[in-house]
Write a structure and sequence with these properties.
By secondary structure, the protein is an all-alpha fold. Helix 2 packs antiparallel against helix 3 and helix 2 runs antiparallel to helix 4.
Length: 85
Amino acid sequence: LALILFDGGLRTRFATFRSVMLPAGALATFGVVVTSAIVAPAAVYAFDLNWIEGLLVGAMVASTDAAASIARFKSLSISAVAKPP
């Protein structure tokens, strides 16, 4: 995952990143909070963890939301530029 994120960061032009920075950042932030809130209780009950460990599992799973959000917005921006309305 680290290599994929690093490679994606190197290949992303700054103009493309700037155009999707605010929506992707907002979606990633809320997505991480929501995913953590859903995964943590499931991990606590499924794996018999305490709440701190469950929140850690939720945070690990949720950390990929930001990368997925930025990749999605990037693909939408590229397809919108490639296909005129």
